[in-house]
Specification:
NAD+ binding, SIR2/SIRT2 'Small Domain', Rossmann fold, 13 strands, 2 domains, 16% strand, 3-stranded antiparallel sheet, NAD-dep_sirtuin_deacylases, 8-stranded mixed sheet, DHS-like_NAD/FAD-binding_dom
Length: 382
Amino acid sequence: MENITSEKMTARKLCTAFGVKIPRWLEDAKDEGFYQLLGLAINRELNKRPRLPQYKTMDDAAALLRERKNIMVITGAGISTSLGIPDFRSKNTGFYSRLRQMGYDEPEEVFDIHNFDDNPCTFYALAGDIVPDLEKWTPTHEFIRLLQDKDKLLTNYTQNIDNVEAHAGIRKEKLIQCHGSWATATCRKCKFKVPGEDIFDSVRAQKPAECARCKEEIASKPTRKRKRASNGNGSRKKRSSDEDSESDGAFDIPQPGIMKPDITFFGEALPNDFFDRLKDMDKDKVDLVIVMGTSMKVAPVSEIPNFLPRHVPQIYISRDPIHHINFDINLLGDCDVVVAELARRAGWVLEHKMIPDVQAVEVALTDEIDHISTVKVRPAQA
């Protein structure tokens, strides 16, 4: 029988066989790098959860909010779009779609770590559109903060890199930034780390940010004339006359490293705390899951719902339905509108300047089999 230790069958091939879309950051990984992802995929198939029949409506969701005390929240770009921060994959409006319109055949290459090291100018020329505003967050972020304030938030797993959750007040110990974030930036040469906002001006100016520590170190050392390299036996290599004419009197001029925001680029592994937190702490403690603003297409985050115990209720909030995961309650609409109505029905006060003082909301159960309700603001009377 073939197994992952044979040459014929690999962990990567098995992931594909289980229908897992391989993340670009794993494309160049050794086979061992696929083991955790394969484990999640196998667990998903063995434990594909059925929909719980006792939960169906918005009122059921509100009751669960009141009752449960260890709520896992999984979020994607859809919770930040009302701030003007584009998501990545939406057709026509997503960041990748806009890059295609600009002529990039493979928009993901802008976030490829090898491409960044070769030419950081490409990333810096385009990243201004996704730099977050540190002073703003949405009603949905405020809703997550409300769960925390009520001591009900177990963990917020966010796929977003904007770091808005942290600025909205979600505590570090409650937040797993699955794909990294703009919170910090690190020098690719000396690994010096700075707050992310230190490079925001450079990003907005479309100019690669150079490492301040590298520049200080370079400034403190005299520039030296270039020496001919040793050929390995103590003597110097003989140079051609062309090389002599071009390089005699030349100087080695050290270059500072380039600062990279600590978002996870393709070609980099996810932080270990994602897997450790999920399997060692949250799996056995969670009593309610709320997924918001994400299509749940990218592994390993997409594997979380089927990795958790089947009896734990799961609520899905987003504009469009998904069909590869059996959520118990599906509330389709603008995330900000849905959470405001959900909080109201739970008897909670959710205050945010983006929530109108008077907002009439229509909720309609449109699919009783798949437990789908649509949620939308009622048009104002003429």
